[in-house]
Amino acid sequence: MTAYDIYLATPALRDADAFLPKLAQGLATLPPAAVLLRLADAPEPQLVSLIQKILPVVQGQDIAVLLEDRPALAKKTGCDGVHLSPRFAGGSVRDVRKLLGDDLQLGVAVGVSRDAAMRAGEEGADYICFGAGGAPADAEDILPGTPEPTPVELAKWWCLVMELPAVVEVPEPAQLAQVAASGADFMMPAITFWDTPQAWHIPA
């Protein structure tokens, strides 16, 4: 076990069969603790079929599968949990926690907002995820004339003062060492990982 774990996120999938070779290669190249399964919009029977093809491949290697933004479907199909993206509009974190119960994991993407991260923890999240594209930095965290804090900077602060695990999105391989040094519990490579998994060499 390293000081951090890898958390791989898939592209938004429409065809499980087409992705399975990439999935197998990625899992072998950079074995993760968990996989975030993202699905393109489709009728529920099609989504269920896709999930049922992915789950045995991942869970069969003792790797958790978290489904993005579909808590009811995650519970129905036997996923290990749910990850709420910034686009989720199906209720509050507290609502999703109540739906999932205590057995399934719940993660929340919080952008670069300390307030959103703390609020997610208070409402029942099992981890928070810092990255681009989510909630902006809180006004009190930005001094005049300075840029907003980066996900890595927030992770350093969070891991010093909070116990709730933190995930940090990593946009490109060159940033792996910096994120690894932040103290984050999990690193989430960008979805470009699946095209060139060998490029994502984890620093010793």
Automatic annotation (TrEMBL):
SUPFAM superfamilies: Thiamin phosphate synthase. This is Thiamine phosphate pyrophosphorylase. InterPro entries: Aldolase_TIM, ThiamineP_synth_sf, ThiamineP_synth_TenI. Residues 7-186 form the Thiamine phosphate synthase/TenI domain. Gene3D superfamilies: Aldolase class I. The lineage of its organism: Bacteria, Pseudomonadati, Pseudomonadota, Alphaproteobacteria, Acetobacterales. GO terms for biological process: thiamine biosynthetic process. It holds the Pfam family TMP-TENI.
